[in-house]
Every structure is written in C-alpha cells, then in structure tokens.
Amino acid sequence: MAQLGNLRHRPARRLTQLYAGLALYGVSMALMIRSGLGLDPWDVFHQGLARQTGLSFGTVTIAVGALVLLLWIPLRQRPGLGTVSNVVVIGLVVDATLAVLPPGEGLPVRAALLVVGIVANGAATGLYLGAGLGPGPRDGLMTGFVARHPRWSVRLVRTVIEVTVLALGWLLGGTVGLGTVAYALAIGPLAQFFIPMFAIPTRPADAYAT
C-alpha cells in the first residue's frame, strides 16, 4: 500500500481529514435518503440490492465496496488505508445516521436535506481523496481511469460511472427521482472543485514545487 507512506508527512492532518471525510460521506448519503426526493446513483444501486437481499443499507454499501475493489485489478490501482477504511466506515456511518435521522417533513425541509446532502457528498469526496491515503473503491474507478486516460476529465469519467450504476440500480428496483438527476449532474463539477481544494502535498518538498 504505497499510500501508507504518506503518513510520514503530516500524519495527524491526513488521518483527521480522511476519517472526517468518510464520516461526512456517510452522513451525506443518509441526508439524501431521508429527503425522499431521490437517491444518488450508487445509492439507487445499493437500495435495489438491499430490497432484493433484505440486508441493511449500510451492509450492502460495505459489500458492494469490497466487490468494486476487484475492478481495480485491470486498472492496476493499489489500495491504501483510505481505501480499506472507506469500505467499512461509510457503511457503518450511514446505518447509524439513518437510525437517528427521521424522514424530512414538508417539501422545503426535504429539498434542504437533498441540497445539503449533495454538496456535503462532494466536499466529503474532496476531503478523503485529498488526504492522499488512497481513494475509496468507487472513486478508485474514477481516478484510475483518468490516470490511464489523461485526456478524460474527472468530471466526465465520474458522470459516466454514475449514469451506468444508476441504470443498474433502477433495474434492481432502486428509487429514482429528481434528486437522482440533480446528483448526477452536480457531483462531477463538485468533485472537480473540492478535490484540489483539500489536496495535501505528499512530501514537504511538494509544497514548494512550481
């Protein structure tokens, strides 16, 4: 796990940012679920699987994350601490948040939950990717493909992945709504904005590179 070497530089900042990002990601998923206005594409897929299997939403999220790691093999991606933590932490947090967060009542509240959830999801992506300890399984597909195809932007690759997963989730019985469309359109630009904002140099010397 090459990313573990990054802990030699600013380890407290990296670990704090990593787990804050993962926790925020799980909370953002729960916010969108409780809005009742539509799930993000991956969660449409997770919901479809949960309905088919009877497992909790978080359990399905963990299982899917582990399986997605298999898709890293042809991309020659190497998992890091952030990758392993992503598989476990997000699923646990989303289940815990859903246990205490009631569904939104009234359209204004539901709309607010959706908007906050989408923006928080983008910020969470920037936080844990910026920690430099390895992308999550799903984001590893995005960053791995971009690394091997540099002419493709993060925004475009992320959008293609989200649309593909959305179609599969809908076929499995996941709920698609206005919030799903909003997420699919917004998450690419949000990730493009937040990832550079929270990126931490991997070495002290990087801070002075031009």
Automatic annotation (TrEMBL):
The chain crosses the membrane at residues 18-35, 55-73, 80-101, 107-131. It comes from the Bacteria. The keyword Membrane applies. Signal peptide: none annotated. The keyword Transmembrane helix applies. InterPro entries: YczE/YyaS-like. Keywords: Membrane, Transmembrane, Transmembrane helix. This is YitT family protein.
